[in-house]
Amino acid sequence: MLELLPAPPVDPLWDLTAEYAADPRPDRLNLVLGVYRDHTGVTPVMAAVKEAEIRLAQRSGSKEYLGLSGNTAFNDAMLATVLGTEALTSRATAVQTVAGTGALRLLADLVRQTRPGTTVWISDPAYVNHRPILEGAGLTVRTYRWLGPAGRPDDEDLLDDLREAGPGDVVLLQGCCHNPTGADPSFGTWERLAGLAEANGWVPFVDLAYHGLGDGLEADLSPTRMLAERLPEVLIAVSCSKNFGLYSDRTGCAVVLGSSARALRHVETALQNAARTLYSMPPDHGAAVVATVLGDERLKAVWLAELDAMRHRVTANRTDLVAHLAALGHEEPARALARQKGMFSMLPLTPEQMRRMRHRSGIYGTTSGRINIAGVPAHRIPFLARGIADALRTDRSVGHPYGRGPADR
Ligand SMILES: Cc1ncc(COP(=O)(O)O)c(C=O)c1O
Q: Ligand 1: which atom is nearest the Cα of residue 250?
């Protein structure tokens, strides 16, 4: 039977990560995956998380099955954290998922159960897994332009494309710190998007994977909350991988705002049914940790301070890179980078230049130009800037207008 299996495509990011691991150069830099690293290059376990884990280990607990919605204390804490007000949490339901990816998949499944073949709009360029997740759930995918030539969202292109989204369509938007571009719209543009959704009847589907790492937790959540206030129905996929550093504990939540209690009950059951057939229920550990942190004012304050420190380190890295690039004579790319937010930066390099940077300098980013700015130890920024400048010097004639990079290989 297995002889019939055609060669499947290899995941581009993990493929590059394997290439990095096999690279013998000691000064190589892995900036492929979106993982925060501290100044020593380590992805730390946050102090608030460690303390919660100690508390959980000391509790004489049980590992009995939880219900199909997972850890309900975690779900309630996620609703309160993401939505912020009783007016919104009272219109919402939440189901724990296997991290942000699980939330995206369950919500895609919910859309399919509601209306098979629904069109979901994603950004171009998009997070590499958006299209496969949505198509894997049986949905139709269309794209809207995200980046203009200045390296930030071009309102007119974005809104023009989304004017074609109609009633019953779903529009997937990254709530902050857009992956892969690091380019976020202004709050005014978010409001125009809300107006378009109101006028044309499409449903926003917000992917929250980096809240807290752009302008701060509350600021990063404000576009999502504004959409939730203005629109009757909103889907939200929440990941705790980055902002709690719980990458391997696979912690996340599917949140749905609806206009009636009856619809929300159906939503919860539909999400549970989707989980039941995929993995039955999610693992508890990460959710129990997050519920412990968010349920204790002191621990929550420790976590918020750590999250802020992470954000400041990422911002300092970007500022430093911008200064070094400008000093090397690359003012224009430096200006574009300076406007970006969150863990990723999109370099104005062609796929060929990205490959050359990998081969000549041992700097690994994705072929589309994305690098994980949160993965660079501070003292390696000059090395990174020199690598980028070297790649830019080669083959400059080709140019790479932002937003026209091909999909990652
Ligand atoms: C935009 C976006 N959404 C969702 C995810 C999924 O994250 P996870 O499943 O690790 O929580 C990621 C991970 O990189 C992402 O970048």
A: 11
